[in-house]
Each structure stands twice: as structure tokens, then as C-alpha cells.
Amino acid sequence: MTGVPGGFRLDGEVAVVTGASSGLGAHFARLLASAGAAVAIGARRAEELETVRRSILADGGRCVAVATDVSDPARCRALVDAAVTEWGRVDVLVNNAGVGYGARAEKDDPGRAAGLLEVNLLGAYQMAVAAGRVMIDAGRGGSIINIASALGLTAGSVPQAAYSASKAGLMGLTRDLAAQWSGRHGIRVNTLAPGYFASEMTAPLLEHEQGLADAVARIPLGRFGDQEELAGPLLLLASRAGSYITGTTLCVDGGWTMH
């Protein structure tokens, strides 16, 4: 009889997390640290980022924080370089940085949409390249996890074409990078696509009674997800427990995309 696998631990490994100043990014950073990884965290809001760093250190973890704008390739490299300088390696990248807004496409501002795509899609690409180069040079493989959304697979009740396009694009980025790097370099690349979870982005919906009711009505499990329900999926993709998973999208949405 096979026992419960211990491969979910990340002891001795180094993870980089973007968009880690609050919400899911901060949760992912704390989770990876609790699993044994040293964590380099990046986000634009330096003060909030420092708060997350201190909380990880207070819990006995290892963490460095670097103010990072993923739309700037030099800042992407600086975050990865900080991890290498501190600990000599990068094993896991969680591409979590993202922005969002709702707007009808015919009324949307092209400049605003371009800015969203620059952060959500181009930023993720630039971070993946920066981390991927380090992983390739080290020759130890690694794991890249692109945080997308169930909205990359289906339409929501709020019109947000630019956001949905960026998240669908992340899934395409995942597949191509997996094809390039998994077999040749042992770098697994996957997408984690959450459905509705309480966060800064979903706060306006949670405060809107009818919007909340409409969203929940489409979720077979009948509720928003809890951040802790992303812990297992993230660790699966980050760790040796998911060593045979690459190029795929893991949707954690309470069944929402079935509709």
C-alpha cells in the first residue's frame, strides 16, 4: 500500500512571487514559505510588500522583497537576480501580478486596455523569461505557475474583454513555454486558474448584492472560494508532487466553468 507522498514540501528551494503585496499573491508567498521555500517577493506597492516580508520572517520563513513593476523587463530581472544573489538559485516562479477592470468593449479606452495587457500578459512573459534563463543555466529544472482566471475560459457577468483576453493569453503562453522548456530543460510550466475568490479585485462585486447573487448562482458549489482552497493546487504545481504535470490549466472554480 502506497503512503501519502511527501513531495509537496519545498525545503531548500527558492520561489519568486509577483504581485505579492496583498491578496492571493501575499497568500501564495506565505504558503510557499511555510512549505520550506525561501521566497523573493515583488510588487509595485513597496510599503505593503514590506509588511508581507516581515510577516513571513516573523513566522520563521526566509524572504526578500523587491519593489517590482513587471511591465519593465529590467525590474523583472532585478527581482529574479535578488533571489539568485540571496540564495543562489530559482526553482519556482509564481506569475501572479495582475490588474483588472470592467468595461464594455465599445466604450473601453485603448490605452487602458494596452496597460492591462502589458502587466497581465507581457509582464508574465518577461518574468518567465527572466526566471527561465536562470533555471536553464542551472540545469536543475523548475516550475513556473501562471496565475490566470476562469475568465480565460468563459465569459463572466461583468464585461471585461481586455482582462479575459489577458488570462486566455496566459494559458497560451503556458502551453508554448511548456513545449519549449519541459522536455529539454525539465522546467514545468502550468496555469492555475481560480474562479471567484475574495480579493481586492472582487471586492466591488462582494459589496454589490445583486452582482454577488448573480455570480454565486452560476457556481455549482454555491459560494466563493476560500484562499486556503488554492493551497493544495498551488503546491501540487510547484512541488515534486506534480512532477508529471506540465502545459496544462488547473481550474479551481467550484465548477463555475461547467456553465
Automatic annotation (TrEMBL):
Q: Which SUPFAM superfamilies match?
A: NAD(P)-binding Rossmann-fold domains
Keyword terms of this UniProt record: Oxidoreductase
GO terms for MF: oxidoreductase activity, acting on the CH-OH group of donors, NAD or NADP as acceptor; quinone binding
Any matching Pfam family: adh_short_C2
Q: Does the keyword Nucleotidyltransferase apply?
A: no
Q: Which GO terms describe its biological process?
A: fatty acid biosynthetic process
Source superkingdom: Bacteria
Cited InterPro entries: NAD(P)-bd_dom_sf (IPR036291), Sc_DH/Rdtase_CS (IPR020904), SDR_fam (IPR002347)
Tell me which family the UniProt entry assigns to this protein. Belongs to the short-chain dehydrogenases/reductases (SDR) family.
Q: What is this protein called?
A: NAD(P)-dependent dehydrogenase, short-chain alcohol dehydrogenase family
